[in-house]
Specification:
heterodimer, A: 153 residues, mainly alpha, 6 helices, 0% strand, B: 203 residues, 3 domains, 10 helices, 71% helix, rod-shaped
Chain lengths: 153, 203
């Protein structure tokens, strides 16, 4: 029994060293699980191109609607004399209000994406050590591997 | 790609119901314009749902500090084992006189082989994290337009707000008309927005 206790078992010894980082390896396994949702997020980034196109068209529309603004300025000067035109004035105001509301909603809808961009940049930095660590562990593995093969037969 | 036909949206289709198409319905017209970007808004909502995934990744990123410590410990161990390697190199010329040490040789060989195996596995386990880092860097770049687009849509909303508030105030003349709001965004101008309009350019 005493001899068994004192005998050195390389495999067991090394396993016990690596058992200590078992939870870390589990965390690395969880990172792998997140790869798929991140791929989905990557695909969602394609939303910005059509939004850019939409924004360009709305911007063009804003230019087109500018004369309407001048027209309404003029219109308001004669509203007292031509009260039936008040409805038109209201419609034009409503048009601008509706555009403003919808555009504000769209800007608000972009808020999480803008916030996420900052987060993604931070996470990208936080994950930078992964590459260096992988190289270090590979280099260490090679050192041990060399020692195991170069030892006398 | 034509995202919307403003004439059609504002006045309705030419062959539609006569009574309805002739009437101008501002809210309906604008809704029709924005209905076309509804699928895009749905995708933006999906993007928002990734907040928790980001939080989880934030937590998981802590793993690298601890792995760094472990890498240092194993590096130290590799240095400690170096004299053992030298010792065995010294034994190599006289193996017959030290045959009884063969078992020890074998164990040390297995020790190094086992370390090499575990370390290789650990390096492999870091593979997904490396891939993820590449992806995160790529997506962070791909998401850059979000901030600009948000500012531009806000700017345009304010531009339309200026018109409506100027209209409401009757003679409240905008110092920077709506038509210039788009141009200002094109030129990357950032001007103070007032109730009366965008403030004039500052020198």
């Amino acid at each position: 029994m005493a001899t068994q206790r004192s005998s050195f078992e390389p495999g067991v010894a090394v396993s016990s060293v690596f058992d200590q980082i078992g939870p870390l390896q589990e965390q690395l396994a969880q990172i792998e699980v997140i790869l798929e949702p991140i791929q989905q997020l990557s695909e969602l980034a394609s939303v910005f191109e059509p939004l850019r196109e939409f924004e360009r068209r709305i911007r063009d529309l804003a230019k087109v609607l500018a004369p309407m603004h001048n027209f309404q300025d003029q219109l308001q000067q004669v509203l007292k004399q031509f009260s039936p035109l008040g409805a038109l004035d209201q419609e034009l105001s409503q048009l601008c209000v509706s555009f403003r509301e919808s555009l504000s909603q769209l800007a608000t809808a972009l808020e999480p994406a803008a916030t996420l961009q900052d987060r993604l940049a931070d996470l990208s930095t936080a994950f930078e050590p992964a590459k260096a660590l992988r190289q270090e562990f590979s280099a260490l593995a090679q050192i041990f591997e060399r020692n195991s093969t170069e030892l006398p037969q | 790609m034509i995202l919307f036909d403003i004439k059609n949206d504002l006045y309705g289709p030419p062959s539609g119901k006569r009574e309805d198409s002739s009437a101008f319905r501002a809210r309906v017209a604008v809704s029709a314009v924005f209905d076309q970007v509804e699928p895009l808004q749905a995708r933006l909502t999906r993007i928002a749902s990734f907040r928790k995934t980001m939080e989880r990744l934030d937590e998981l990123a802590n793993v690298f500090d601890q792995l760094r410590k472990f890498a240092m410990q194993v590096s130290e161990l590799a240095r400690v084992l170096e004299p053992m390697h030298d010792f065995h190199d010294g034994l190599r010329p006289v193996p017959n006189q030290f045959a009884s040490l063969e078992a020890l040789d074998e164990k040390l060989k297995r020790l190094c082989a086992s370390f090499a195996e575990h370390l290789s596995e650990l390096a492999d386990a870091l593979g997904p994290a490396v891939t993820l880092q590449d992806q995160l860097a790529y997506i962070a770049g791909a998401f850059e337009p979000a901030k600009v687009l948000r500012e531009e849509f806000s700017g345009l909303a304010q531009g339309f707000g200026l018109v409506s508030s100027a209209m409401g105030d009757a003679r409240n003349t905008a110092t920077f008309p709506l038509s210039r709001a788009g141009e200002a965004i094109d030129n990357g101008e950032h001007r103070e927005v007032t109730r009366a309009g965008l403030a004039p350019e500052r020198d």
